[in-house]
Amino acid sequence: MEYYTTHLGFETRLLIPEEDPFFAIVGRDGVEILLKHVAEDVAALPNPSRHEWARWDAFVHADEPDELAAEFRQRGAVFREPLKDHDDGLRGFAVSDADGYVLFFGRPVAG
């Protein structure tokens, strides 16, 4: 949760329970991400660690991916894919969160 608020500029919208939470919702603009701690012996399992062709865990539409990438860079986000026009017709970038989940922020290439 701290990674999302510190490095990606999300805000905490819900904690359950408020003291020592196991569930949280973080959000930014119109995006909300649900985070849940299941148990100490249940490890995170990001898509890219299971299947090389599943490179992202989430796609987040960003009207201005260039501006967002610059902000995230200033905040110290870990970039997994640099900002660029991708072969699949998208302009954007991917970041990894503290558990290795990969989020792509972008939009279709204009024109």
Which features characterize this protein?
single chain; 111 residues; alpha+beta; 2,3-Dihydroxybiphenyl 1,2-Dioxygenase, domain 1; four-stranded mixed beta sheet; three-stranded antiparallel beta sheet; 7 strands; globular
Structure, explained:
The structure is a single chain. By secondary structure, the protein is α+β, with helices and mostly antiparallel strands. The chain has one domain (2-37, 48-108): 2,3-Dihydroxybiphenyl 1,2-Dioxygenase, domain 1 (Roll). The chain has 3 helices and 7 strands. It has helices at 2-7, 47-50, 65-75; strands at residues 11-16, 23-28, 31-36, 58-61, 78-85, 90-96, 102-108. The protein has a 4-stranded mixed beta sheet with strand order 4-7-6-5, with helices on one face. A 3-stranded antiparallel beta sheet has the order 1-2-3, with no helix packed on it. A hairpin with a 5-residue loop joins strand 6 (90-96) and strand 7 (102-108). The longest helix is centred in the middle third of the chain and has 11 residues, at 65-75. The chain starts with a helix and ends with a strand. The model has no long low-confidence stretch (mean pLDDT 93).
Helices and strands in order, then pairings?
Elements: H1 2-7, E1 11-16, E2 23-28, E3 31-36, H2 47-50, E4 58-61, H3 65-75, E5 78-85, E6 90-96, E7 102-108
Parallel strand pairs: 4-7
Antiparallel strand pairs: 1-2, 2-3, 5-6, 6-7
SS-based class: alpha+beta
What's the order of the H and E elements? Answer: HEEEHEHEEE
Helix segment tally: 3
Multimeric organization:
single chain
Name the CATH architecture.
Roll
Major β-sheet profile: 4 strands, mixed
Low-pLDDT segments: none
